[in-house]
Amino acid sequence: MYRLIRPLLFRLNAERAHTWSVRAARLLQHADGSVLNALYAYQDERLEQTIWGRTWPNPVGLAAGADKNGVALRYWHGIGFGHVEVGSVSAQPCSGNTRPRAFRLPDDEALINRMGLNNDGAEAVAERLKQYTDASGTPQGIVGVNLAKTHDPSIMGAAGRADFCTSFRQLAPHATYVALNVSCPNTESGKTFESPDALDALLDDIFEVRRELALDVPVLVKLSPLLTEHVVFDSALDTLIDIAQDHGVHGYIASNTTPDRHGLQTDRDRLEAIGRGGLSGPPLHARSTQLIRYLYHTTGGGVPIIGVGGVDSAETAFAKIQAGASLVQLYTALVYHGPALIKSIKQGLVRLLDTHGFDSIQDAVGTDPALKRFA
After folding, report:
1. Structure confidence at residue 37 (pLDDT)
2. What percent of the chain shows pLDDT beyond 90?
3. Rounded to two decimals, what is the model's pTM?
4. Mind listing the domains of the chain with CATH numbers?
5. 317-to-49, 154, 270 alpha-carbon distances in Å
6. 165 is annotated as an active-site residue
7. Rounded Cα gap, residues 200 and 196, in angstroms
């Protein structure tokens, strides 16, 4: 069905097509759930895992950026995602950067965006998440929330940390986990909290609020991709990991988009016309997978990792899982392949488990022979 709709969507610019897609998802989530189940349902107990005290029905999640404001959660879970990450969300509402700010690269099945953290703000998103919880306050499906600093260059330093903490206070009580987006390349200030001192101070404040609120919500850190897929030692990254581990961070997301343009098939003139922005999709796969290996090795597999960047098939998802990711996420592939991809990936993962002789997806985590290069 998506093959019929895609040409129509691709006649629109990337942002408008995304806006209409999310509007459609928002409407479809109120339809008879049996329709979505008939089209997209697929579950196998071998894909289930227990992580952070919750049972995850499958490892395939929707990455942040697709549903920034949490308006279509029932739809995303209805088409088979095991979890949904909302955001990035900031303390204050933000309209983002000027348009155009999202671009397709069909030759690479990739996207470039410089959205500028446009979102409805923490208070509005928190109200939506409240409506998606049961009587005990637990989300009806697994929902992570990705937090970022409000896109305002005047909010820096201590004010920036306070901004993060405001969002955390409002959203963490309604989330399965919270991801700190310290590595977003799409604002004027860049990687504001991906320096050692800044990350250390931010985690100090966030964990203090977490204790104050008596929450057990897991806190994850989302990192930038490696510069190449050949990195086996990075002292700057080691410092960030040490800081995060010292604070008791519960996991990592690997990785964010990247501002560079390495390895693209898209014409250079087209790239120059687009300008700056974060690249996502298949060109990011090798580097994000290597970052997963790096994190898994450095932490001794002690905390879960969510792998994101170029997941567009069962094979790319399985590569990240074997590299050390317990969970994977996608968004760009949804633009090119549509919602049926989720079922296809899950079915393919089960076949790959059989091929490799694993009883469960959890057994496959961290089994990549390439991890020996770090030893």
Report:
1. 81
2. 84
3. 0.96
4. 2-374 (3.20.20.70)
5. 16, 39, 29
6. no
7. 6
